[in-house]
## 1
Amino acid sequence: MDILPILSTLRRHKLTSWLLILEIALTCAIVCNAVFLIGQRLQRMDMPSGVAEHELLQIQVADVTAPSNPYARLAEDVALLRQVPRVISVASSNQVPFGSSSSNGNIRLDPAQPERTLFATTYFGENLVPTLGTRLVSGRDLQPDDFVDVETALKALGTGESKSLPHVTLITQTLAERLWPGQNPLGRIIYLTPVVGLRVVGVLDSLARPNAYDTAKAQYTMVVPIRMGANKDQSYLIRTRPEDRASVLTAALAALKKADPQRVVTTKRSFDEVRRKFFQDDRAMAGMLVGVIVALLIVTALGIVGLASFWVAQRRRTIGVRRALGATRGNILHYFQTENFLLATIGIALGMVLAYGINLFLMLHYELPRLPAVYFPIGAVVLWLIGQVAVLGPALRAAAVPPVVATRSV
Amino acid sequence: MFSYYLDLALRSLRRNKALTALMVVAIALGIGASMTTLTVLHVLSGDPLPGKSAQLYYAQVDPQDIKGMQPNKEPPDQVTLIDGLNLLHAGRADHQALMSGGSVPVQPEQSSLDPFYVEARYTTADFFAMFDAPFLYGHGWTAADGEAKARAVVIARSLNDKLFGGANSVGRTLRMAGTSFRVVGVLDSWQPNPHFYDLNTGSYAYGEQVFLPLQTMLELRLDRNGSTDCWGNGGGGVGSILPSDSCVWLQFWAQLDSPAKAAAYKEFLVHYSQDQKALGRFERAPNVRLRNVMQWLDYQMVVPDDVRLQNGLAFGFLLVCLVNTVGLMLAKFMRRAGELGVRRALGASRRALFAQLLIESGVVGLVGGFGGLLLALFGLWLVRQRPSAYAALAHLDLSMLFTTFVLAVCATLLAGLLPAWRACQIAPTLQLKSN
């Protein structure tokens, strides 16, 4: 197909051509970035928690008046829950992965260093590793005699007396690699405060933070042997088989209620619900982006249909003359298809530059990574296809113009 | 002339129904999407206390140890209990309040109701006057009540409805966390958005059900919610243990009725920091901030990033819709070159043609704007179905309704300018000859 006649025709419709090119360019730029954003959100929603998600239940109960011995209370509750049929394991924790509410500490490798090395989540609770189902990669799990009551620890923190403070910790692989790249983390010391030095005794495969907003730092977690008492922020975590979750949750709540009818249950959910709730905004945003992409493509396609129809109507006579001079229907069809392809290509080329610019702006204002090059061909193919589909109707109509039109006045 | 042009415009639009519909739909979609997101942004970045917010200031001082000090670094976002009480007792502002959030179990007298937890605000006497909290019955507690750790409570209207059937409950007893409190006041529906005075508990659609004197909470050690930041050997506190003195966990607000008073108060905060340093409590040079409500919300970047992003996206979409409309309008006007040539030949000035074509695009804009309004209402309904905390706030107000139409008509007129100008450039004789 010779494109020179097409170009010379387009030169006579400069303004309209440029408008169409501009529309395609804007659409291409927005679609590239929107698809990229959707990818980011979907990737975030897939973030690993490191725990056996389909086997876990979370319960939080609150006492109307604080129990006289919260540690005994918690131990009683855990023992009660262990007796519920089909329960595999029970733990208590001050937080859960993707649970939003979090407890964190400043990590230093040297107690005298002025700035913290990083900010990591500190899980407190007994029996966490077997219940959560996170794997110990090396070292050992926390033992009962590692644990210190939280009040004892807080008092010791105030007086600076280190004997009554915890001395060991478990950390994730990611955190170990970040703190001591390529080295064995076992036996090394992390300082939470100048007096709290914790020796790494075990490395966990994976355990996400409750507020894992930043993917890179989502695994900066450690488990510290601090024994918490029963309080409304403490969670009971129950592990069971996926198919038993509903019945175990009901039975567990009944057992807790039976032990003290005055208690208020503030949370009762499966871990699937925890994840769904944590990523609900990402899901909504991804849905919205899909909606915008679809609407944009429809509007652009309709715009192409409108302009192409106008051009076909305007050039009826010319088409008739070409047909009378021997052009086949296929020639006419291809003419309009090629014309659209040309315009789309210029639009896409401009759109790529624009997409890159928008991405730079987003990187500056929303902490997004750079747009990977793979999104450019996606945008290009989508717009070429949309253009060809949109122009097909008008082009077929053009091809149907009979040669006899040439001899008549419009 | 206007009505004649309007008639011409309507005739022309009717002649080409598909093209007109295409333009109207494009405008409506663009306006609908951008008005939906703009309304959400407008609601979320609104002033929680119009008329009062400029006089309310959030105070920050820097009590941290010398470790990790950097010049120009912001002080902590909250205050320690000691500093909060010191500033409160200094009483240098027109009004001041120290506060923190929490939740308490309510034990209803009715046996039909199980105990339940409600969100609580532990604060000091001036809170209600400072933040213009409207009372349905009774009033707040006095500063003396607060110092005396009175078992007094102000409850929200919804809790009053639930527990007391909406009756005047002032003087009645409310049992919470095993302690009997006397209801001293009932607030009318009140929920400032954003929840500016404490953003740690959730920025939007968050409201406390009970308000208790802070000093009472300190004595009873009720449960705290929100954020606690510690340094050095500070421990965050748990259960009945309060956070240590090297932890910030309270908010301090001051009402300062004139800019001069605000400047003087900032000066006072500097002096206070110097005094504390002289006493050996503070280790850093005075590092204070005093922001009014809107400055504080801005500093805390309270509007979610996603909402800004959606707004940008919607306006990008509107731009595409407008370019689309310009193209279609151009096609439409150029197609009528013959008709326009005749009008020119009969003596119509370029200006008259221009006006006629602009009216035509204005009509498209108005119809598109109306469609956009319907779409925006639908869009806002969709937003309200979303799970985000702010979703429930997404409602169109009068000013946004007006903005919708202005935006729609302006946008289409703007889109009509280029095609109308182009169509007016046609030489009348050429058009007449070619036919």
## 2
Amino acid sequence: MTTALTNSGTAEAIPGTERNRDRKRNPGGLLARARRSYADHWYAWAMVLPVVAVLAVLVGYPLGRGIFLSFTDANEANIGRTIGDFEVPATYRFIGFDNYWNILSGREGSFYPRLSWTVVWTASCVLLHYTIGLGLAMLLNRRVRGRSLYRVLLILPWAVPPFVAAFAWKLMYNTDNGVLNALLAKAGVGAVDWLGDPLVQKVSVVAVNTWLGVPFMMVALLGGLQSIPRELHEAAEMDGASAWQRFRNVTLPGLRPVSGTVVLLGTIWTFNMFPIIYLVIGQAGGTESEILVTYAYRLAFQGVRDYAGSASYGIVILSLLLVFSVFYRRLLGRQEVAR
Amino acid sequence: MSGLPAGHPSRRGTRARGERSRAASAALHAVLVLASLVALFPIAFIALVSLRGESGWAHPMEMAGFTLANYAQVLGRTGFATWFLNSAVVAAGTMLVGVLISASAGYAVSRMRFPGHRSLMWSFLVFQMFPVAVLIVPLYNLLGRLGLLDSHGGLIITYCSVAVPFCAWMLKGYFDSIPADIDEAGRVDGLTPFGTFWRLIVPLARPGLAVTAFYTFLTAWGEVAFATQFLSSEEHYTLAVGMQTFVGPHRAEWGLLTASAVLIMIPAGLLFFFAQKHLVAGLTAGGSKG
């Protein structure tokens, strides 16, 4: 009951809840109400049970184990395993917060550089996705000849699996035999070391991810634009609002529900975007452009496998994302209230 | 390009609705054509390279020596066909399990208010944030103990850790968009809540289920990190792992790589072409009411 009331933002979106609440407010007696609520809840719990069970096993257990590992010094040598019939006992020790201290104090040396690049990577990718996606969506939302053809062409990158795109761009970026440098040579510009120089490398991967991610944003925002009633624009135009004012005061607020979700999801996905960085540059040895996720992955599976260090990195990444999304939701909520 | 959303609408202001000056129209098309070219170029380039034989990639600007040799080799002498099948099996398995398990939960979260409702919604979102790094080592150990490493079943189980919360989240948004009057009608006719869900809502939500399934398939199809570590024998590789063997520190079989890229993109592209209308509708329903 209280959840339904505090959650009025959601409740408004669902016509049925309003009615449910009324029904519950006029109960046919205490016993009947208790029985009905038990029946309701029993049903609800039974229906979510499969998901809860699966998540408990597949996410809950590994998460617990990951947290546990992050407090130990486990690595490949001491984790314990079975070789044939011979069992090697685990010999790793509990070392408390040492891993976290190492990471957060900067003693381990790669956290803060990785973090700042990850933030830049996420921010620039999401910003480019959103602005380009919105721009194209607004163009496609007009009456344009050949609109459906444009739309199919613009959606195409989305149909390309990320690992294929990563390879394709890696080939195009090839310094000696890549098509980009060949085009530059035609234009009389010298070759660029796309994947060598740390800074250019970063620009290159952002470009790949932008190419890959814009269609999703475009499609999502196009759907959002189409759901804004035409009358709103017409009314604003009648009132003499300029195009910019209409964009600010009609289009953007109308898009907010869609924007809020896709920006949040986009941020999470980009922050954890593994294949692009890993396949385009990750293995080439350059660690400059690695984001937190690929770095943690490398810790766990290259050289002496540092399971504990990798797990601690994972927990830190997760905490960062959690803090971000809590603040983000707060911010959205406050804007909602302010209006 | 980022100036577009700000700058563009202003062109509309001075004219009657729906009309544009010739210059504005030309600019509009120019932008769209340019964007389409950027979107299309890498794909077209890969297709071109794939047709130019084993070493055609080294001369990207030449337009000669077209042959299907790369395709013949990819299909005949590499594990491509097996990998393709493996990827399809894993992605389809993840899709089926994910959608089947999460549909009823999505409905319950959409329609019923119960203790734990909020935290469940919240956890659907949070679980999508799980970085590979938190889960991969524990899951690796867990699957190792169960003897499921290097198997498709193990990979499907792994992918479900992401697919299930995602599906539940998407489907919840979808069910929200179906009027609750329908539920009421079902209830009046004496259906149980599950009966309502199964007989009335699921058939109505079929497009939403399809879209969610499609996204889940796509995510599993393109996954790299888990597959790279969990699969160790070549006959179990998925495409994402198998294609890494074409291009590595000591090998640069770009001909093979581009040919397989094209073979992967053709079915994906066709699917998108037919599904795109529904994808738009599905996303907004799922996205706007998260």
